[in-house]
Amino acid sequence: MFNQRPICYDCRHFDTEKWEFKCKAFPDKIPKDIENLKEDHRKPYPGDNGIQFSPTDDTKLAYRVIGASESLSALGLSYYEIKLMEMRARDVKSFDKLEEKDQQILTEAEKILDKKG
């Protein structure tokens, strides 16, 4: 996984009012396996009440890049280049504001993902 911190901080369900490690899925405490990135909460996890990670509007584009990272790598981008694209995506927040080169390669990577199904 290319993200080095828990995805919880970028989730619309994260409790930002008290800054305790809680959310709508885990109102008592987010499990350590999710916090420590051992489990990917974009997929169902026991006890999550049917609620999984959903990026905030500000981070949706960055998570498109993260989700396509394997395909981006297959297209020849290095880990460093993918991280830079993710950072640019976090800065601009919308696809149409990405540099044209980034738009093209992200689109190509997502086509590869679609073919994999």
Provide mean pLDDT, rounded.
90
Please mark out the parts with pLDDT under 50 across 5 or more consecutive residues, or reply none.
Answer: none
Count of the separate structural domains: 2
How far apart are the termini?
Answer: 19 Å
Helix content: 40-55%
Write down the secondary-structure element order: HHHHH
Approximate shape? elongated
Secondary structure tally: strands: 0
Rg, nearest Å: 15 Å
What composes the largest sheet? Answer: none
Please identify the structural class as seen in this structure.
Answer: mainly alpha
Would you give an account of this structure?
With 117 residues, this protein is mainly α. The chain has 2 domains: 1-54, no CATH class; 57-116, no CATH class. 42% of the residues lie in helices and 0% in strands. It contains 5 helices and no strands. The chain has helices at 32-35, 60-67, 69-74, 79-92, 100-116. α2 (60-67) packs antiparallel against α4.
State the gist of this model.
The chain has about 120 residues and is mainly α. The protein contains 5 helices and no strands. It folds into 2 domains: about 1-55, no CATH class; about 55-115, no CATH class.
Features:
single chain, 117 residues
Secondary structure elements and their pairing?
Elements: H1 32-35, H2 60-67, H3 69-74, H4 79-92, H5 100-116
